[in-house]
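Reposting from the mailing list since nobody answered there.

I have sequence plus structure tokens for a pair of proteins and want to know whether others read the tokens the same way I do. The first protein:
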Amino acid sequence: MNPDLSKLQPYPFEKLAKLKGEVTPPDNLEHIALSIGEPKHPAPEFVLDTLRTELQRVENYPTTKGLPELNQTIASWLERRFSLESVDPVSQVIPVNGTREAIFAFTQAAVNRCQYRPLVVSPNPFYQIYEGAAYLSGAEPHFLPCLEENGFNPDFDAVPEEIWHRCQLLFVCTPGNPTGSTLKLEDFQKLIELADKYDFTLASDECYSEIFVESAEPPMGLLEACAKLGRHDYKRCVVFHSLSKRSNLPGLRSGFIAGDAELLKPFLLYRTYHGCAMPVHTQLASIAAWNDEAHVEQNRAEYTQKFSAVLDILSPVLDVKQTEASFYLWPKTPINEETFAQQLFAQQNVTVLPGSYLSRTVDGINPGDNRIRMALVASTSECIEAAKRIRSFVESL
């Protein structure tokens, strides 16, 4: 077997299951899970209707490139959402089976393992696929800490030049998981200039881009920054988007990669061998979802309501702040984060994720120490109940 498989660490939820297995929660309280970022709002009924209507399309082989009408729908959505002059649906868009699959696959195609000690650079904390994809591509992961003093974004100015020389692929996640932080135009401009100077690919994971407080400005995306900088070919830049969070369709496994046509052409070749074409009925349902914004606005309204209610309850007892976007809270804990998560489960039957499970210790610092990630994905009533139990637990410490 590939020896690099031995470098893969257990997924955060494997660690969480072991931690919870050491205690027993109270029988008189219903379990509330705030640990997994799986949307629990209802899927749009019109998307389900399309799936039912088009189910007979399982009789057809899908193409890796995708239906022209889906690619055009995605290109049009990108143009509307990010004020782009034009996106070529033929050369600058590829449908994918969710961002997780595409991020992993793109890394395999993007890394030149013949280069001296190639690096895949990513934020820390991070989506664990970045790390696993790096190892299995023949590269090493390199983590940039996302600390509160820098707005929970990496301090790109502090990265040594030697790291940029070895970097082949830089992942950013905006809005961030788990911090909810976003990158601004000046951040993207700096990264694009670095990509040009050191010849690496800039990949932006933007699957939370449509979840933000209703009154706030929509988060900027990498392609939007490219357009503002007059870079309409999106050179060296790709973005990943998904219907999982935007449309409450995590099981549909539908998203896309878009950007530099010179990067997507060889990636499409890779995918024809990889065997990951999106089923036709899924593509048709995806067209329906990308073409509708009403359900997205309703989704945002529900998250805004939950954030407001939960923060009102928790702010007096925890150091917790409204994130810029996404559906996460990233509060500090008054005790060790693993102990906090375990005892909260044992006493209140509420599950949260220790922040250290989403991070790596580099130079003695783990950005997730004494923090937990709370995913406000349950119903509003459940989130309020969970917040009350968390407050009661904190007050008992």
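The second protein, same order (residues first, tokens after):
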Amino acid sequence: MNEQQAALRINSGSNAEAVSQAQKEHRSGVFAKGRRDGSGWGLVLIGFNGELAPITLTDGAVIGSASRDAHVEGAGIAAEHARVSVRADGCYVEDLGTPDGTFVDGVRARRIGLSHGDVVRLGSRIGVFVERDLSAYGGAVMRTGPLVHGPRQRKDWIDPILDLVKGGSCVCIEGGPGTGKRTMAKLAAAVREGVGDIVTVDGRAEGKPTIPAGIRPMTWVVLDADRLPRPQQLEIAHAVGRTSGVSVIATVGQPLDRAVGDGKLAPWFASLFSGKRVTITPLEHRREDIAAIVQDIAERRGIELSRITPELLESLVRAGWPGGVPQLEATLVSAAEVAGPDGALLPASIASSLARASRTKPSLPPATDPSLARARLEDALARANGSVASAARSLGMSRQAIYREAERLGLDIARRKFSRS
């Protein structure tokens, strides 16, 4: 073999290895291509140890206490507990005949499909299935004032709110009941204590909210601004216009543009925020934080953590919680009262209190994560070789819904070619 032939063989081998590596990278994501920056998919293990532990999964990986693919330890976890497989229609987990079983959203199953946000219990360990950007979920549980959260929440809405306020901007904090938006507004206002006076106006106050006369505060905290009468909104807007460098920190229980469209907020009041709005994630979409929130509630209420069974914690993590943290706290306290001073807290005692999400899950993720929605839609079209009808069947949607979703996500189906790598 001459040098030219040897070089050709080496180069051919390198190309084959590169192709193989590219295929592996594509397989490292369920609905999105894998990246080298630590993103990917898998389980985020949660519990009372103050840590969120991501477990990276791959096609064919075995989860268990003796596994090299996905090592997970805990009571009731077998050496080889479950196997993960990726098919054209999604990701599946298969129990490998274990005594304690594998549960997905409370259902014990031999083999079952997984979707983003599903709660998986293996023995006594609980995890949340994540389809992409797994590394963003991992790390120590944090506390910002009274708020208990993981690193993803710090990055997604806590730091953005604080950064806007530190820069002197106005900010509108959107969120549902009990998500912490009022607490976050007060924490943000504390950043500006050295700038000047802070005035708080509460739209939920009984009667007409009072606004102190004759003062020019540098920071306005307007809680539940969408419930504040328009005359008070106008008064605040005029006060802000009379003084430079003033920051308004407002909270609303619905998206800002919807509040304006419904007549809850005057357009000239909403214009103070110039598009600077941050949405606090509801508990249903931050399930990895619920175990830490439960631990915080239990410690404040004097409930021993040893009384909270894995089955109860699983039920709490997968519940909907439209009322937010206060509803979660009331449910946990009720379970403790039913169980007595020393009894174990069981799911049966709170079954009637748990709010469930719709049994028919949307095929695409909620609008809170449009990048994930776009990735899943692109993947479905690629698997269907660009056929909208086939992609619609695999996602359980109509073709019209596919086109509407593509338009919402800025995806041009007609001009773009989709094919699998």
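Reply #1 (J.P.):
I read it the same way you do. The longest strand covers residues 51-56.
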